[in-house]
Design brief:
Blueprint lengths: L4 H6 L7 E5 L3 H12 L5 E4 L2 E5 L8 E6 L13 E3 L5 H7 L5 E10 L3 E7 L5 E6 L2
Parallel strand pairs: 1-4, 5-8
Antiparallel strand pairs: 2-3, 3-4, 6-7, 7-8
């Protein structure tokens, strides 16, 4: 069923506004994500949780790794695709060196949709990565 005009006006630019990747060992996970993205994740204590923020544009969709009560890593459930930049192989080539495991190498979707790959982080979370090239 197609949305009507009123529903279209309520629709937002992105389906996702924020995401959190649960981690058991914050230091290990921070090192992993800092290594694969070649960026030192800034961290901040948010109540009982410790968060490490991933790079994003100020008006873009952001996310963080998060450790604390109720944060349980999993390879099942929701699958988040991280931005792989111009060519996801740059990030993907750092995954195993950082302690993760590649589940699916760079795979072409279509010329219009780009490429994706899947990996497990050091905490056991399954994530995707996407790029156009």
């Amino acid at each position: 069923m197609l949305p009507d005009q009123e529903q279209l006006m309520e629709m937002l630019k992105n389906a996702v506004s924020w995401f959190e990747i649960p981690v058991a060992d914050f230091a290990r996970a921070k090192k992993f994500y800092s290594t694969i993205f070649d960026f030192e994740l800034p961290e901040h204590q948010m109540g009982p949780n410790l968060m490490g923020f991933l790079l994003s544009e100020p008006d873009g969709v952001g996310g963080a790794i998060i450790a604390g009560e109720g944060c349980s890593p999993s390879s099942e459930g929701i699958l988040v695709y991280l931005n792989g930049g111009d060519d996801l192989n740059i990030v993907l080539n750092r995954v195993e060196k950082a302690g993760g495991r590649i589940l699916l190498q760079k795979t072409r979707i279509t010329d219009e949709l780009g490429h994706y790959a899947l990996f497990l982080d050091t905490e056991g979370n399954k994530l995707g990565i996407h790029s156009m090239k």
